[in-house]
Design goal:
mainly alpha; 3 helices; binds zinc ion; about 130 residues; about 0% strand; single chain
Length: about 130
């Protein structure tokens, strides 16, 4: 590598490190003044985030977190109902379809409707 290439490489790395430092200084200043923002930033799992934290990146991460919340809430509800009914894993709903055929997400009123065409079962029921 020539001296001028090395110079350009170090200068470029230095510039992007300076941009990172400026961004982090801004966040430190803002979080010092806003405990809610500090808490929110501390709770973000940066290992789950790919790409920049711009508006599009934040919206994508929000959608992913909400989907994970809802799908796992539905799984928890499925297992909770199964435990309450005292039936084995793999037991079907009263409608005859598997628990997995029922909502992958809870409805707003906490139901797990059957997704099988023309079934009409509006909530997973092991009884
Ligand atoms: Zn059902
Ligand atoms: Zn069904």
């Amino acid at each position: 590598m020539s001296d001028s290439t090395l110079h350009a490489t170090y200068a470029g790395v230095s510039r992007s490190a300076a941009e990172q430092a400026a961004a982090l200084q801004l966040l430190l200043a803002r979080t010092a003044a806003d405990p809610g923002l500090a808490l929110a930033l501390a709770q973000i799992d940066t290992t789950e985030i790919k790409g920049p934290l711009d508006t599009a990146g934040l919206r994508a991460s929000l959608a992913e977190a909400e989907a994970e919340r809802d799908m796992n809430a539905a799984l928890a509800e499925r297992h909770h109902r199964r435990a309450l009914a005292g039936v084995a894993l793999g037991t079907s709903c009263a409608c005859g379809h598997s628990a997995a055929t029922h909502g992958p997400r809870l409805t707003e009123d906490a139901r797990l409707p059957c997704r099988h065409d023309d079934c009409g079962c509006d909530d997973l029921d092991f009884s």
